[in-house]
């Protein structure tokens, strides 16, 4: 019952964090990678040790390719991202990465994505997010169709959507900050991470809601707030332990995994943390507030 008794505090904390995330997104926006805005990505491998990042950046600047991002990968590799390149510019870039021929470099891969492809990926990403959210609302409304009192089944679905928006906005706000201050770019893995967060978060929320549904059927209490509080107590340890296990694995991937998956792991860590928070400290308290609001309206 501790969570329900202090629901206003937990909801206020969430509101503040979501508000700050929205401000971050509004001011900085998300820095789109070549997956969405188009461009070229060259992965180069060095034999006998790679040069420093500064040396590579200085060599690339001389080519006048516009904004170029140099990113370490693996032990002896670099990933260079830039605008779309012609074949001649690609060859010139590879030559420049040789750092005056003192470092032998090999092209591991080269990918080029046009602006039209990037726009198509953006559209599909948005459609995928909307489709997942709609499917979740419909599923929860159907799964809880036999629970009409004291809160209608479709309201469970809407509350789940509120928590999902909470779980998407916060990682996006964090990434907007990282993009502005550290150049972190949003790519298709970012979208995959958000979709994964949606699935894991709603799963956690449904576990709590399902326990509430069972306890309502069993009439463990005539007080709805008390029923929700006891349901949270019964699922709290399970939710925390499950999420903590996943977060620890993701932290290992972030710190010890390849450079290309660090942002993916970071989005999942932030999303999982706040997804667990929302399932316990946001969804159920909102459910209690909705029931209280309905009860007060009936009295009027």
Task: Write the SSE topology.
Blueprint: H1 2-5, H2 7-27, H3 34-37, E1 39-47, H4 53-61, E2 69-73, E3 77-82, H5 87-96, E4 104-113, H6 115-143, H7 153-182, H8 188-218, H9 224-256, H10 262-281, H11 283-299
Antiparallel strand pairs: 1-3, 1-4, 2-3
Structure commentary:
It is a single chain. By secondary structure, the protein is of the alpha+beta class. The protein folds into 2 domains: 2-33 and 116-299, Up-down Bundle (Multidrug efflux transporter AcrB transmembrane fold); 39-113, Alpha-Beta Plaits (2-Layer Sandwich), CATH 3.30.70. Helices cover 69% and strands 10% of the residues. The protein is built from 11 helices and 4 strands, in the order H-H-H-E-H-E-E-H-E-H-H-H-H-H-H. The protein has helices at 2-5, 7-27, 34-37, 53-61, 87-96, 115-143, 153-182, 188-218, 224-256, 262-281, 283-299; strands spanning 39-47, 69-73, 77-82, 104-113. The chain has a 4-stranded antiparallel β-sheet with strand order 2-3-1-4. A hairpin with a 3-residue loop joins strand 2 and strand 3 (77-82). The longest helix is centred in the C-terminal third of the chain and has 33 residues, at 224-256. The two termini are 28 Å apart.
């Amino acid at each position: 019952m501790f969570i329900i008794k202090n629901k206003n505090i937990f909801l206020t904390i969430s509101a503040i964090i979501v508000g700050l995330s929205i401000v971050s997104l509004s001011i900085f926006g998300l820095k789109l990678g070549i997956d969405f805005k188009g461009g070229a990505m060259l992965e180069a491998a060095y034999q006998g040790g790679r040069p420093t990042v500064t040396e590579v950046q200085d060599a690339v600047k001389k080519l006048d390719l516009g904004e170029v991002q140099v990113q370490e990968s693996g032990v002896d590799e670099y990933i260079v991202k830039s605008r779309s390149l012609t074949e001649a510019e690609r060859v010139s870039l590879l030559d420049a990465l040789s750092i005056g021929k003192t470092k032998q470099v090999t092209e591991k891969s080269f990918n080029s994505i046009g602006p039209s492809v990037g726009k198509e990926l953006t559209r599909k990403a948005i459609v995928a997010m909307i489709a997942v959210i709609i499917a979740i609302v419909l599923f929860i409304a159907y799964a809880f169709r036999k629970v009409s009192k004291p809160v209608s089944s479709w309201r469970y679905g809407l509350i789940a959507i509120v928590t999902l928006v909470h779980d998407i906005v916060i990682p996006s706000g964090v990434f907007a900050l990282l993009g502005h201050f550290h150049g972190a770019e949003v790519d298709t893995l970012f979208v995959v991470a958000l979709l994964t967060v949606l699935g894991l978060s709603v799963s956690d929320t449904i576990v709590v809601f399902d326990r509430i549904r069972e306890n309502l059927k069993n009439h463990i209490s005539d007080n709805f707030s008390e029923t929700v509080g006891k349901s949270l107590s019964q699922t709290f340890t399970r939710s925390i332990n499950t999420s903590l296990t996943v977060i620890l694995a993701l932290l290992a991937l972030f710190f010890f995994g390849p450079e290309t998956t660090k942002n993916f792991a970071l989005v999942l860590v932030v999303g999982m943390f706040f997804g667990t928070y929302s399932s316990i400290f946001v969804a159920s308290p909102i459910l209690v507030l909705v029931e209280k609001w309905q009860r007060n309206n009936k009295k009027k």
